[in-house]
Amino acid sequence: MADPVTPSLGKLVASKTLDGHTGFIWDVALSGNGQILASVSNDMMIRLWNANTGLQRSAAKDNGHSNWVRAVRFSPAGRFLATASDDMSIRISDVNTGFTYRMLQGHTGRVRAVEFSPDGRTLASASDDFTVRLWNASSGLLLKTLNGHSGWVRAVAFSPDGKTLASTSDDNTIRLWDTVTGKQIHQLNGHKSSIRAVCFSPNGKLLASGSQDKDLRIWDTTSGATLNVLRGHSGPVRVIAFCADGKLVASAADDLTIRVWAVSLGFACVRVLTGYSGWVRAITLSRDEKMAVYTSDDMTIKIWHSA
Fold it and tell me: Where are the WD repeats (predicted)?
C-alpha cells in the first residue's frame, strides 16, 4: 500500500505493526500526548501499548467487564481510560494502575460508544437502549438521559467547545443536543440507512457523518443543513475523522479503502488508500498529526509516523 501523503499530515510511512490480539479489534485510542495507545478486541482483552516503541505496556482481561468491550477512550489529560461494553456498563480506570475508578450503570442495552468532553468533566455514552447518557466523569453520577432516537445509538461526539453533542443511530438520523440542558437542538435527516460514525470539525462549524448507505455527509452545525454529500465508497462507512487543522476528512469503509477528502476543494477526494485485508474499524490521529493509527479485522494495529 502506498504511503499516504496529505497537505496537513505530511508524508506518513508505515513504521510498526502491533500483534497480540487474537480477535478483530473493535476500537483504538491514543492518549492526548500521543505516548500511549489503547486497544479493545473481541478476544476480551484490553491492551495498552507504548505508541513510540510498539511494545505492550499491559494487558487486562475485560477490565472487569463481563462481555465484549466495544469502545475505549482516554480522558483529555490521559490519566483515565473509559471502556464501554456489551455488559451494559462503562468503566473508568486508572491508566497506570488499571484500578477501576468508577463503574457507570443504567443503560439497558449494550453500550456501543463513549466519549469524554473536551474538558474531561463529562462522559457521553451511546447504547442499544436507544438513549444517550451524560455522566459526571469524576463522581460517576448520571447527569442527563437524552431520549429521542428510535433505534440503536451507534456513535457520539462532542463539539470542540463541549456545548453540543452529536449522536447517530440506526433510525437514520443524527441528533444535536445541548449538553447543559439536555434538549435536542437539531434532527439531521438525509442518510438512508444506519449512521455509524460522526465527528465535528476543529472549529465546530461542520459535522461529518458516515453511513451504511455508503455516503458521507457534511452538515452545517448552526442550521442543521446538509452542505455536501460525498460519494465514492462502495461499502458502508464505519469510520470518519477530521485532521486537527480541519483541512482534510478521512473515511474508512467496508470496501477495504480509506479515502481522504480536501475541504478547500469542495470535499473532493484527493487520495484513496487500498491494500487492507479486512474492514478498518478505527482510525485515530495524534494531535500534532505526526502519527496515524488504524486497526482492521486482520487482528493487528498499524502505526504510521511522519517521515
Answer: 18-59, 62-103, 104-145, 146-187, 188-229, 230-261, 273-307
